């Protein structure tokens, strides 16, 4: 079975660990978000790719969900002693090595996809990890910064890097728009469209629908390839009980005018046309969206009918990734829903 | 008093510490060797500049003479885990930060001299540290590598980076030539020629006469500026009792056809013309060399007459930098010899 997963950082990485347990023989291709990539200290940092790589490769800091286990911060302390920041982004010494290798290879002319493959030679994540694009894409967030005492009394509107919004400001200022700068000119990385075309199932893990999965879908060609793949597309809600399971997805959902509910996120992705050869296909049912199936958490069972009414097959199951078993069970539910879509 | 010092790494840095103690009110400009600079992991590493900066700024590893005190090697271990070397060059975590800052500034377009000044803002070395040039110069060594079992039975001749010869091979293979690649096209860094022109005394510390002081003198204009400065030029022998005090200077001296003796190194630098207005100047005495005075170690007292016969004022004094007091005493002897030259 060939599975394609569109993954952001922590949520995507943890789900993938469950998916590998649930489908140990599957051929899994992960299309990783690079919209939160950032240049720090002259080095190219790819937080989401690294979180997937470290998590599946056994190097992750389990407690915080990102960064390396057994980490120290000598380099960062020394950079601060030189007055060189930012200090709000936590790069550890072990982590620095990854960015040094990546930057050296990029400077030598290798595309990010080749660099990612080389890094994975060490980590052996057990999946094929592809960046969504080799082109530079940076998610920026239009915010209103707190009033700094200007004559007008109104806060300053400004576009800032996603990491500054997310990590430095902890999404604490109003966000008006989320823009994956560069995405419109970007091409999918080699292998991305091919993997989607050959997929037996496409999964959207409980990653951020705006700044993770949404950014991947903003690369021209990826959304179209998924819609055309003829494979069931199944998503898992990152919103449980009207709040994000982790992170601050509600803040960026608000910026794109989507409610923080499991049903609203499903409608945001939209209903896919039925798979070709199926009944609805002939009747022209379904829409221009992507989802054939959607899993909501048991506490959101009340949303199942609403999602189904939108043309998306929906089930309520436990969606808290409390441990590997619970996460593997979620992955099994997603694969079962895909089979149900295919068989319908 | 304005003092200009041409410095390599450990020997130069330790001498400078003594000089600062001996002449606390002097205005000291250090012209640092950059011929042993190397690009490692995509980062610009300047070992000699850093050794001077760390030594005078209180951050040096005192035992080994280079690198940072209280150092760890997480980044290097991780790079090795990625299969990225070289492993033979000991970059510690704290040290990495210096190279990251330097590389980031160079990439932003700042010349090495401005970068060095910025790094020294933190370290406050108490001297003005100038790289000999903002242009890239890399000392290469022509060597015969050990016979690798070729049909001819002879070893391979090859030019390798100075650090590979010095650090990886520990100067254990025959060296035929030492070439500061790029020096012939390089210009002295801003401030270098001005500092020399305004100097009251120029000192050659007990640094390597070939790959440290010799490389600095290979930058077009520096040798000429020293010869024209009208200031006493005093050197301290790095050879004591026919062997280098530290390092492997004998190996590179052999490559340029100079015996490893205190007198031979003095003749290698050569006798300067007497200072303008002095007797010898009118008589056309002295040569096209650089030295007015030369200090040899007490154990080499027998060399004093030979050096003097070459037209260089010479004294035998203790030249072992065993501690700060001993080093300060050496610096005082050098300054006293400069006064003697001026007064003669």
Which properties best describe this structure?
7-stranded parallel sheet; 344 residues; homodimer; alpha/beta; 14 helices; 3-stranded antiparallel sheet; 38% helix; Helicase, Ruva Protein, domain 3; 3 domains; 14 strands; Rossmann fold
How is this structure best summarized?
Two copies of one chain form a homodimer. The first copy, chain A, is of the alpha/beta class and 344 residues long.
Record the SSE blueprint.
The structure is a homodimer of 344-residue chains.
Chain A: E1 2-7, H1 10-22, E2 27-32, E3 38-40, E4 43-45, H2 47-57, H3 74-81, H4 93-107, H5 112-123, E5 128-131, E6 138-145, E7 156-161, H6 162-168, E8 175-181, H7 192-197, E9 201-204, H8 213-217, H9 222-228, E10 233-236, E11 239-240, E12 243-244, H10 249-255, H11 262-269, H12 279-283, E13 293-297, H13 304-309, E14 313-317, H14 324-343
Parallel strand pairs in A: 1-2, 1-9, 2-5, 9-10, 10-13, 13-14
Antiparallel strand pairs in A: 3-4, 6-7, 6-8, 11-12
* Helix proportion range of chain A: 25-40%
Kindly, what is the distance between the CA atoms of the first and last residues of chain A, rounded to a whole number of angstroms?
19 Å
- Tally the helices of chain A: 14
Largest sheet of chain A: 7 strands, parallel
Oligomer: homodimer
Give the amount of beta strand of chain A, in percent: 15-25%
Mean pLDDT of chain A: 93
Major interchain interface with per-chain residue totals: A-B, 28 and 28 residues
The secondary structure category of chain A is alpha/beta
Strand-and-helix sequence of chain A, N→C? EHEEEHHHHEEEHEHEHHEEEHHHEHEH
CATH C-level class of the largest domain in chain A: Alpha Beta
> Radius of gyration of chain A, rounded?
20 Å
What overall form of chain A do the CA principal axes indicate? globular
Q: Which stretches of chain A are low in confidence, meaning pLDDT under 50 for 5 or more residues running?
A: none
| CATH H-level superfamily of the largest domain in chain A | CofD-like domains
Q: What is the strand arrangement across the widest sheet of chain A?
A: 5-2-1-9-10-13-14
Q: Tally the structural domains of chain A.
A: 3
């Amino acid at each position: 079975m060939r599975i394609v997963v569109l993954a952001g950082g922590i949520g995507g990485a943890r789900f993938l660990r469950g998916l590998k347990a649930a489908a140990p023989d599957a051929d899994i291709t992960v299309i990783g978000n690079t919209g939160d990539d950032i240049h720090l200290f002259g080095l190219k940092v790819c937080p989401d790719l690294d979180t997937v790589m470290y998590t599946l490769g056994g190097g992750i800091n389990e407690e915080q969900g990102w960064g390396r286990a057994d980490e120290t911060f000598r380099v960062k302390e020394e950079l601060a002693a030189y007055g060189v920041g930012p200090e709000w982004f936590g790069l550890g010494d072990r982590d620095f090595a990854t960015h040094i290798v990546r930057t050296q290879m990029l400077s030598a002319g290798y595309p990010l996809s080749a660099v990612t493959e080389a890094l994975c030679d060490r980590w052996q994540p057990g999946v094929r990890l592809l960046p969504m694009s080799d082109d530079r894409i940076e998610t920026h967030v239009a915010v209103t910064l707190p009033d700094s005492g200007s004559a007008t009394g109104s806060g300053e509107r400004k576009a800032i890097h996603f990491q500054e919004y997310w990590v430095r400001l902890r999404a604490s200022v109003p966000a008006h728009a989320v823009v994956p700068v560069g995405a419109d000119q970007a091409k999918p990385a080699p292998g991305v469209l091919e993997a989607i075309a050959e997929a037996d199932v496409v999964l959207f893990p409980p990653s951020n629908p705006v700044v993770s999965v949404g950014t991947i879908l903003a690369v021209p060609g990826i959304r179209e390839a998924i819609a055309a793949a003829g494979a069931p597309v199944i998503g898992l809600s990152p919103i449980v009980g009207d709040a994000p399971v982790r992170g601050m997805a509600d803040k960026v959902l608000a910026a794109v005018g989507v409610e923080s509910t499991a049903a609203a996120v499903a409608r945001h992705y939209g209903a896919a046309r039925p798979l070709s050869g199926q009944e609805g296909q002939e009747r022209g049912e379904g829409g221009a969206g992507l989802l054939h199936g959607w899993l909501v958490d048991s506490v959101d069972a009340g949303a199942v009918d609403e999602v189904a009414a939108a043309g998306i097959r929906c089930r309520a199951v436990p969606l808290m990734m409390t441990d590997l078993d619970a996460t593997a069970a979620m992955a099994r539910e997603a694969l079962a829903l895909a089979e149900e879509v295919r068989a319908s």
